[in-house]
Amino acid sequence: MIQEIQIYNTLTRQKEVFEPLVPGKLGMYVCGPTVYGPPHLGHARSAITFDLIFRFLKAIGYKVRYVRNITDVGHLVADADEGEDKIAKQAKLDELEPMEVVQKYTNLFHHSMELLNVAPPSIEPRASGHIVEQIEEVKKILKSGYAYESNGSVYFDVEKFAAENEYGKLSGRKIEDLISNTRTLDGQSEKRSGLDFALWKKAQPEHIMHWPSPWSEGFPGWHLECTAMSCKYLGETFDIHGGGMDLTFPHHEAEMAQSKASHGKDAVHYWMHNNMITLNGQKMGKSLGNAISLEEFFSGNHPLLEKAYSPMTIRFFMLQAHYRSTLDFSNEALQASEKGLERLMKALAKIDSLPVSDSSSVKIEELAQNCFSAMADDMNSPIAMSYLFEGVKIINSVSDGNTNITPSDRDALKQLFHTLVVDIFGLKAESQAEAGNTEVLTEVVDLLMKLRLEAKANKDWATSDKIRKELTAIGFDIKDTKDGASWELKK
Ligand code: ZN
Predict the structure, then answer these.
(1) Cβ(152)–Cβ(215) below 8 Å
(2) What pTM, to 2 d.p., does this model score?
(3) Most buried of the four, 41, 171, 258, 389, by CB within 10 Å?
(4) Cα(122) to centroid of ligand 1, in Å?
(5) How many Å lie between the centroid of ligand 1 and the Cα of residue 190?
(6) How far is 125 from 114, CA to CA, in rounded Å?
(7) Domain boundaries of the chain, sorted by first residue
(8) How much distance in Å is there from the Cα of 405 to the middle of ligand 1?
(9) Which residues have C-beta within 8 Å of that of residue 331, sequence separation ≥ 6?
(10) Per-residue pLDDT at 432
C-alpha cells in the first residue's frame, strides 16, 4: 500500500525518502526525560510523537529497535557545566536520596505514559547505569584530539572540532556567531573557550552523585550519555534520532560532534524533532509559572483548567496537529477534541453491527490509501485523521440506512479503523479508573432513586418531588414506569 516514506530531516531541512541502513529493520533513539519532576505536556508531546512513528513503522512491517533513555545524572541546572545537578537539587528539596527522586519520577513518568497508551520502548537505558561506556567515549575523544583535560575535568574542544568539521548545522547556528557570543563570558574558567562543553566533570565536595574515572572522582556531562547509549544499543550509525526541538542546541549539536570525534563518522541518518507546546498562545515552562503537569490535566486540578481532560483526549488532541507544528493548548480546543474523540470511538464501536448490502456506494480502498499516504508523508497525522473522519461519516450513514456497503467493504473499513485508530494512533476506550468513576456515579443515582421510591410509598410527595427536580436540574432524565422508575444521563 505504501510506495515510499518521506521524512523531514532537521539536518538537511528537507523531506527525504526514508531508506533504512538495513532493509526491513531500523534503529531509533529518542532523548527521554530528565527525571526530577512530574511529567508535563512537553514530555507527552515528544513521547506521543515518537510513539506514533514507532507504531506506524511497525504497522507497515519494519522491525524497529526503539531506545529511549532516562537521564538520571549529569544534567545540570540551566544546561550548564557548572552548578547543581537537577536531580540532586530536587533531592535536597524533597529530603530524598537522589536515586529515590529518580525512582519516584521515573515511576510517575511510566504511569503517565501508560495512561496515554504510549508503548514502552524496546530498551530504556539509564545514564547512571552506563558510566563505564561513557568513560570509554571520553577516552576515544581524548585520543582523537578533540578533547582536553583541565583540573580533573575533560572538555570537548569545540573550536578545534569546528575548524575541521561542521558544528552548528543541525540547529542552524554559525560557529563565528557562537564564538563571538561566548567570548565576552570567558573568565577564569578552566575551559579553553566558553563554547566547550564538559565530557567529564570533577565532582565538587557538595556533589552527591559521583564515580571514579581516570581523571577524577566525578560524573559525565549530560550530552555524553546519548552518544554512549545509542552506540551501545544501535551501533555507530543508526537510522533515526529524535527529541523535542528545544534539544537541537546544545544537546544534539554536542551529540553529533561527540560521535564524529569518537567514531570518525556521523552517527545519525535522519534527525527528527517535534515542535513545542504553547498554552493560550504563550510558551510553557516551569519558570513561567504556566507549566501544567499531566496529572493536573487528568484531574483538572489547576486554576487554568476548566475541567479534567482524559489521557485519550490529550493524545487525540496531539495527533490532530502535525508533529512539526507548534501546538496551542486551550480549554476550548481540548473540549473540541473530547467531542471529536467520542465521535471517532463511537463509530469504531459501530462497525461490526453495520447492515450490509449487495453493493457499495463508497470507496473504502481509496479512503485507506489516502490515510496511509498521509502517514507516509512525514507522519501527517492531521491529514490521516481528516480522512478517518470521512470514514466516520460513512459509518454513520450506513448505520442510519442512507448508504449501502458490501460485507467485504465493511471488513476493509473495520481493518482500516483498527490499524489506524488502535494500532497506529494508539487510541483506546478510556481507562479503568474512569470506568470506575462511572460505576460509582451509577450506584449513587440508583440510591437516590430508591430513596425517592420509598418517599413515594410513604406518600411523602415533597421529598420524592425534590429528588426528581434536583436530579433533572443536574441533567438526569427521570421516567416513572409501571415497575418503579428509570433514569438516564442526558448529555
Ligand atoms: Zn539525548
Answers:
(1) yes
(2) 0.86
(3) 258
(4) 16
(5) 25
(6) 18
(7) 7-274, 278-424, 436-489
(8) 50
(9) 305, 306, 307
(10) 47
> From the CA of 401, how far away is ligand 1's center (Å)?
54
Name the E strands within 151-206: 153-156, 197-202
**What separation in Å is there between the alpha carbon of 32 and the centre of ligand 1?**
7
In 3-state terms, what secondary structure has residue 309? coil
**CA–CA dist 125, 134 (Å, integer):** 13
Topology of domain 278-424, CATH: Isoleucyl-tRNA Synthetase; Domain 1 (1.10.730)
303-313 per-position pLDDT tens digit = 889 999 999 99
What pLDDT digit, counting tens, does each position of 57-70 carry?
A: 999 999 999 999 99
Mean of the pLDDT values across residues 415-432? Answer: 91
Q: How many angstroms is it from 248 CA to the middle of ligand 1?
A: 10
69 CA distance to ligand 1 centroid (A)? 8
Per CATH, the homologous superfamily of domain 7-274 is HUPs (3.40.50.620)
Q: 464 C-alpha vs ligand 1 centroid, how far in Å?
A: 64
CA of 182 to the centre of ligand 1 (A): 23
Task: Return all residues near 203 (Cβ < 8 A) that are at least 6 apart.
Answer: 209, 210, 216, 217, 218, 219
Spatial distance between the Cα atoms of 58 and 4, rounded to a whole number of angstroms: 15
Structure-block grid coordinates of residue 98: 537522589
Q: Name the grid cell of 54.
A: 514507532
**Cα 442 to ligand 1 centroid, rounded to whole Å:** 47
